[in-house]
Amino acid sequence: MMSGQPENRAVELHDSVLAYVDKKNGQVEIGLVPAYVHASAGVPGVDSGTGWVQNITVVVEDGSIEGQLPEMPCDLSGGTLAIAEHVSNNVLALPLDLSGRIELKLEVMWGDQILVRGTRILTILRGEPEYVEDFR
């Protein structure tokens, strides 16, 4: 993120902390505080790069929530984002602003699952990213 060369970025759900899930005005807001962000010149989460933490709000419009909300904050162990027929495992590309049939499944470390459905998903980055580590 800081190297000056173009980098691809993605949130790795399994290393992120779920701080809150709020539904208001037809939107579901999900706070990842912090989210673990992998940056790479290649494929984030797969190729070599750097790891960062940054607070991120995920917004799902026309949103609904299924499943029992866990006590928060809690660690995520993974998840999937399905947009129409495309499924992304454990990563949310950044920046993210996509419309369609959205299904975001978040898996909490101790087995709980939350399913958020909607028609549009977007991310809002909060504050500046902080460097954590080199990846591979």
Task: Give your account of this protein's structure.
With 136 residues, the protein is mainly beta. It has one domain. Helices cover 0% and strands 71% of the residues. Strands 2-3-4-10-9-6 form a six-stranded antiparallel β-barrel. The chain is globular, with a radius of gyration of 14 Å. The two termini are 16 Å apart. The mean pLDDT is 92.
Could you give a short account of the major beta sheet? 6 strands, antiparallel, barrel
Task: Give the overall shape, derived from the CA principal axes.
Answer: globular
Coarse structural class: mainly beta
Helix content: under 10%
**Strand order, largest beta sheet:** 2-3-4-10-9-6
Distance between the termini: 16 Å
Tally of structural domains? 1
Q: Proportion of β residues?
A: over 45%
Number of helices: 0
Low-confidence stretches: none
* Overall average pLDDT: 92
Oligomer: single chain
* Strand runs, count: 10
Give Rg in angstroms. Answer: 14 Å
Give the helices and strands as they follow along the chain: EEEEEEEEEE
